[in-house]
Amino acid sequence: MKQRTVFFVSDRTGITAETLGHSLLTQFEGIRFKTVNLPFLDSFEKIKDAIIRINEVSRRSVDRPIVFSTLVNPESREMIASAEAVFFDFFGTFIGLLEQELRVQSSCTMGRSHGLVDNIAYGVRMDAVNFAMANDDGAVTRSYPRADVIILGVSRSGKTPTCLYLSLQFGIYAANYPLTEEDLEKMRLPVAVAPYREKLYGLTIDPERLQKIRHERRPDSPYSSLRRCQHETRRAESLFQAEGIPYLSTTTLSVEEIATTLLAKTGIERRSF
């Protein structure tokens, strides 16, 4: 399989470059991408070191490496663009057009995209994260009146990472409750969540995928058997349908896709952006 090296360069964390870059790369099948993250390039010395590293890869490869950049400083962007690579400048591509449309000169300040610009919004997100951790896996249920959403599903269907992403990214107060064998045999909502029907949202997953996930956790155990995975997912979906609980399959979705789909389907408003 053909391989290309991809660099994500930024003067801060590089999260934006990675997110945008990965979104583009997923559209190209049949190529293996080796990614290299180069964050915090906030001095010309670091930029020069990054160029040396990129050029070394270029000289060893048949194809030029690809560089996705969110560098703010124009001089830094110009330096990186001189490297022996294909250069994609996310910041430079759009900032000029925005300056023209808004009729305002940009500040070119590093770190704005992930800085603590709004301390109130940041505080809400951190409080939501604490809520998700305190209300994980049905351990505590007394705070459910405060929840924006309560996620139901069998073990390892993606409940915890979805709750944490919802809280950290969007400031959503998300709790999750596991459907046990007893719940699935009774085929009715657990007593702890029944009063909050309007807040419930279900997650399901393909049995084969669930079996692989559980096998990594408890190899060759009844818990990870395909038969049990098939039984649990089938019963969980039947319970959702019988109780009128909306649900989605996490089989082929990333946690980002699960969270944003859930928000779109429920209409829950984000508290941060």
Task: Provide a descriptive summary of the structure in words.
It is a single chain. The chain has 273 residues and is α/β, with parallel strands linked by helices. The chain folds into two domains: 2-114, Rossmann fold, CATH 3.40.50; 119-266, 3-Layer(aba) Sandwich (Rossmann fold), CATH 3.40.50.300. The chain is built from ten helices and eight strands. The protein is globular, with a radius of gyration of 23 Å. The model has no long low-confidence stretch (mean pLDDT 92).
Q: What key phrases describe this protein's structure?
A:
273 residues; alpha/beta; Rossmann fold; 4-stranded parallel β-sheet; 10 helices; 8 strands; 45% helix; 15% strand
Strand order of the largest sheet: 2-1-3-4
CATH superfamily of the largest domain: P-loop containing nucleotide triphosphate hydrolases
The first-level CATH class name of the largest domain: Alpha Beta
Domain count, please report it.
2
What class do helices, strands and sheet pairing give?
alpha/beta
Number of helices: 10
User: Architecture of the largest domain, according to CATH?
Assistant: 3-Layer(aba) Sandwich
> What is the number of beta strands?
8
- Return the average pLDDT rounded to an integer: 92
Q: What would the principal axes of the Cα set say about the shape?
A: globular
Main β-sheet: number of strands, strand sense, barrel status?
4 strands, parallel
Q: What percent of residues are in strands? A: 15-25%
Low-pLDDT residue spans:
none
The N- to C-terminal Cα distance equals 38 Å
Q: What's the SSE pattern?
A: EHEHEHEHHEHEHEHHEH
What is the fold named in CATH at topology level of the largest domain? Answer: Rossmann fold
**What is the CA-atom radius of gyration, in angstroms?**
23 Å
Helix % is: 40-55%
